[in-house]
Write a structure and sequence with these properties.
alpha/beta, TIM Barrel, two-stranded parallel sheet, 10 helices, 12 strands
Length: 332
């Protein structure tokens, strides 16, 4: 279908806006969570959006109708990596595409990487690992064995069905188990793992979260707004109501102190249907947010719950593949 025909088809689908979800714009040596889109490919994505859609700020996705230029699309980023400022923001500005960046407030300026990156570093950075580790996670002790001591496949990711080495097996099991722990228990487990693996403390430059000054600079970009993504990136549904309120309210409070203006948008960590609850949504409303983004597929119309905005997760696709998926998402 030609672009003109696509636009005509999209115009007939009134009230079907799209919200896109990115995490990082970076070239990674190893990306087991598939969070990175390379700068060249992100630029290709932006060119496709310019050609086929109307890009709008997140706070307008409910109100902008389809036009002759295409469906409305809002771009969002989760987590708050430093490359959001260094690589994503300049490209967004060059293409005049607005975006909302959701930052984990407890990671801003932290001397630790995001927890999933720390697990990856402990398991895959060392050339050799001890043969086994008995690791206490909650009330259970699991045994991790690394008899072969190697992990050569760095193209692997969590969407693959195979596990090519004991390190990959351990990574999959640990990230699954740790995501539902609270921050102190999760940090204790990862600290023990890192010490056992003899990985030095600190943050790799390639995996650095935003610091306070960088967050302020990101917020100052004319195409950018900043939203909250909790304090510690937990599965909110696994927490008590009081803990959920703390994660939500404190993240908003810290960002507003740093940025010196209200923060009105929120994003649920992980964001699947089973990772936040009605109580979570109520806490987001009570905290004073005006909208919240989830992480399940769907289109946004005038009747879409503005506290459960669906989003479409974008991977490191070529411009051609991104366009194909955009057409599918749009129902064209």
């Amino acid at each position: 279908m030609r672009p003109r025909q696509l636009l005509a088809r999209l115009r007939r689908r009134r009230g079907r806006g799209l919200v896109l979800l990115y995490h990082r714009v970076a070239t990674a040596e190893f990306d087991p969570q598939l969070l990175c889109v390379t700068p060249d490919r992100f630029a290709e994505h932006l060119e496709v959006l310019q050609r086929l859609t109307v890009t709008v700020p997140l706070d307008r996705i409910h109100t902008v109708a389809d036009t002759e230029r295409g469906v409305p699309v809002a771009v969002t980023f989760d987590d708050g990596y430093a490359d959001n400022l260094q690589a994503a923001a300049p490209l967004l500005e060059a293409h005049e595409v607005p975006a909302t960046f959701f930052a984990v407030s407890g990671q801003i300026g932290a001397d630790r990487e995001f927890w999933w990156d720390r697990v990856e570093r402990a398991l895959f950075e060392p050339d050799e690992l001890p043969e086994a580790l008995d690791l206490a996670i909650g009330q259970e002790v699991i045994r991790l064995e690394f008899a072969d001591g190697t992990a050569s496949d760095r193209t692997w990711n969590v969407q693959r069905d195979d596990t090519p080495s004991p390190r990959h097996i351990a990574y999959r099991e640990l990230t699954t188990r740790l995501r539902v722990l609270d921050t102190p228990r999760r940090d204790a487990v990862i600290d023990e793992l890192s010490c056992w693996a003899r990985v030095a403390p600190g943050v790799r430059s390639s995996h650095r979260p935003l610091d306070e000054a960088q967050l302020v600079r990101l917020d100052a970009h004319p195409q950018v707004s900043v939203g909250a993504h909790t304090v510690s990136h937990p599965v909110l549904a696994a927490l008590s109501r009081s803990r959920q309120r703390d994660e939500i309210e404190q993240s908003k409070r810290r960002l507003e102190v740093l940025l010196e203006h209200p923060v009105s948008s929120f994003s649920y960590p992980f964001g699947g249907h089973d990772e936040f609850t009605g109580a979570t949504v109520s806490a987001v409303v009570a905290a004073g947010f005006e909208r919240a983004c989830a992480n399940f597929e769907g289109r946004v119309g005038a009747r879409t719950d503005r506290f459960q905005l669906p989003r479409l997760l974008v991977r490191d696709w070529s411009g051609e593949e991104f366009e194909r998926r955009l057409r599918a998402w749009s129902g064209a």
